[in-house]
Amino acid sequence: MPRNVIFVALLLVLIGTVWIVFDALTALGVGVGAIVAFVVISGLNNPHMDDDET
């Protein structure tokens, strides 16, 4: 088996792994960002939410 084929295969595996990790981190970041944005918007819409409960 030529050395170039092994090198290309390892390179493709490395790129695929990095892509999967990056994709997972991006999805996680979007999810966390959406949750934070939802909490912030809810807080802005109800600035006296704690006062109303008392």
Describe this structure in words.
The chain is an all-alpha fold and 54 residues long. Helices cover 89% and strands 0% of the residues. The chain contains two helices and no strands. The N and C termini lie far apart (75 Å).
In short:
The chain is mainly α. The chain is built from two helices and no strands. Helices cover 89% and strands 0% of the residues.
Given as residue ranges, the uncertain stretches (5+ residues, pLDDT < 50) are none
User: Largest sheet, if any?
Assistant: none
Rg estimate, integer Å = 23 Å
Q: Structural class per helix/strand content?
A: mainly alpha
Total beta strands: 0
Shape: rod-shaped
> DSSP helix count?
2
Oligomer: single chain
- Percent range for β-strand residues: under 5%
- H/E series: HH
CA-to-CA gap between the ends? 75 Å
- Helical residues, percent: over 70%
Q: What do the pLDDT scores average to?
A: 87
